[in-house]
Amino acid sequence: MQIVNDHTGDLQNFGNNQSGVEHHSGKTDILPALPELGPSWEREWITSRAELKKIVPILQSQNFIAIDTETGGYAELNEPLNERLCLIQIGLAKTPQANDPLKQQGKVYLIDVKKLEKEAADESRNAGHEINPLEPLRNVLEDSGVIKAAHNASFEENQFQKYGIALNGAVDTLELARKLRPDLPSHSFKACFAEIIGFQINKGEQTSNWLKDILSTSQEDYAAFDAEGEFKLANVLIGMIEKAAVPASLTTEELLSELKESVVHSLEILENGGLGVKLAKHSARIKELEATVATLVAAAFQDPERRLFYKGENGSVLLKADRLTEIDPEKLLRLHPEIGSKVIEFALSKTELKKHLSQKAKSDAGYNKKMIEEDLASIFVESGIAAPWIGRINLNLEERYGSGYSDTEQVLKAVDRSALEIHQDHLKATLKIAAELFPDLPDHSLVACCREIAGVKLRGIHRGAKASRQQKIFNAEAINALYRTLGSIVEYTSENPVTNVERLAAKIAKAAKKGTLFLKDRPDNSRRSKLEKELHTALDTLLHEIIAERAKIIELMRNNDAGNDLGVEQLRQKHIKAQLKEKLASKLNKSRKSFTFVTDSGEVQIRSRSITRLNLEELKKRHPELVEPLIKVKVSQEKLKEAFAEKGLSNTEQQNLVEKLKTERGRKKPVLRIWPAFGKLYQ
Fold first, then answer.
1. How far apart, in whole angstroms, are the C-alpha atoms of residue 481 and residue 641?
2. Beta bridge partners of 607
3. 667 — phi, psi (to 5°)?
4. What pTM was computed for the model?
5. H/E element holding 321?
6. To 10 degrees, what angle do helices 563-584 and 217-244 make?
């Protein structure tokens, strides 16, 4: 099994640790400490329903609040930690919005749910009916006009549902962070605060005992800051979302111009201090480390019916091949004949049919290519077009790279080829490596790669210009710098912390065939074989290295203050592309499946494909001999569930019936999942 393609062989002649990328042999998986931020807002305890009712008008007057909850569970009752709602924290601003969210002053209400429940229980006994302890909060929580920020808002939603109250108008900072900072290995509240806000916070009390009648000072501080910190994090993220927004009124031409501007800004951020090259170096090494994990685990994967799972100090690894199942039409007709005819469909591969028709044309002189196309058009009737997608976007980056930058032959005329350290014929392979290591570059021409990877702008390549002798020598050195930079990245990524990987994999495969490896029923590590311990040590070492490389990436982002700006630009580009697709979709129809819009900023191509339906009667009429060997009978699960729903069956009952109708057809391709313990970076 392979995770990434290995093209390092194309660069075998690179020198050892040549200049271009600084080589680090140290192993660091602990991030430097950030300045710590603690609670600073005023706080007020709410311990009765009367006090709760008093603050409701205050909360309803707010446009924006932050909300968090603390929960607990009794171990002696085998309750999970989220079983009982203990505390609700609500934060709101006391002063007008500050330019710096960290300077925003506010107040946190700490609502003691345990005391509210005790009070409600006493009143319920006297009143003769049940009283909801959180009823006064209903109008606030269910008012979508009051925006509520929460980190992993579904957790809070589930807690309030226990009291029959919905949480409307929620803004989930977990989801916002995932959109804006997809580069982060963790999106926990602590990780987001560190990498997005730039401060370290204390989460030591998160799993402490919140069922106590009297909380400790550290618990109270922790709870108060959760709401305060959530308010501040949400304001920063919302500000980033606003920066990434794209007006719906922009024309297609304006959108392409905006896209070009955003892409160039991203390149400028990555260019600063060689950030892009350093990030690529560590990202490429992570891929190689993951590939080594795959090699070792795949060697132990001799039985596709078994899942291989490893969990160690530095993370977990899972390799499994899921069952490949499909609904058996015969079983459906036998058990549910009344709905079988409604949900059974006939499927035919157009590729397979075309293959058989082409074979027929070879043996039948009267059957030709034109007749094949006529048959295909009659058997597969076009019924519409599929959802469009962006085929390609080519931006005009002449201002950054110079006119004619994409014409390699023209560029090489401005290069002293005798001064090149690489043969001209190997340039294509070099650029192939560049494209793999830097897949997000908007252009992978020689000029663009020299600028973005080697940090050197070629001279005298403008259309119609004639380079001087000095410029040609300079350009040759620039290409040499590109070659050395790529070589040093490849050298860095090829260092393997596990010696003799191939030999170890061979030993593992041999033992796995005997069924003596990777057994889950050995919780005691001392009972494992020497080879099993060797494998586990290797996996733990690789996971440790992956964590270390991610730590270096995070530190680079911190030092360059680049993460948030890059996140905004990447999300903005995503929005622009979505609008381009929406605006250009009207250009497509049944007769035109592709359209290219060209402007001074570049060009964008939108594409679609035909949606066809099988005309079975036409196939029977034209080629009856192909019906039995090519037609496959399938069951539409969507229609089947609709039919079951019409019978009044619940979702669970529907799913159970569907499972009984399935037949195993084999196994899917093995899927490897790697979960390094990135949480260690924020302990």
1. 61
2. 389, 594
3. -125, 145
4. 0.87
5. none
6. 40
